[in-house]
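User: Structure tokens for both sequences below?

Assistant:
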Amino acid sequence: MAIRFEEHLASVIAEEADKLIQRYHAYHNALHVEHLRNLKRISNAPPKVVKVPDYWKLDRKFNPFYVKSRRNSIARSITKKLANHSYIPNDPHITEIPKRDGGVRKVSVYQIPDAAV
């Protein structure tokens, strides 16, 4: 039973990582299209700067490329912790997004394995 759960958890982790990878690729592709457009329009076009979310640097489990490549070992570790009743989700990264009215909205970003669980 634990092996089936581990396999299921690995597939859910992969789905979550794939979703975030697709978002990142869409951002990168749009940035590239804009850069090509700028090269045609502007003689001294600014260089293309590809950014990664700041929280990817906090822990590798925020990075969907890392998590997807290690999904089986991550799922095995979480399954063992769940069986021992010792699983504790990691604290989310809280980012603040400014609102139009001057306030801020707090958004919690969980590590991909925690979001999958």
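Moving on to the next sequence.
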Amino acid sequence: MTGRRRLWIGIQVAVVSILLAFLAYAVRDQWDEALPRLRDARPAEVALACLLLAAYYLLFVIGWQRILAAMNIQA
């Protein structure tokens, strides 16, 4: 059982590593265009945007929990 668990963890680490490498490759050319925009960004607006995004995802999770509860599915 331990060998199977280690294999599964190794596969997950490999997949996450590949995903992160792909994302880094995809955005490497965009940093030159993003830096001037980041310098001009207002910290309060960035913080507000992050809070709104976090609230959206929280509501999404709560909604799914209610849907699952209505269907009598235990998570």
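User: Anything stand out in the second?

Assistant: DSSP finds three helices and no strands in the chain.
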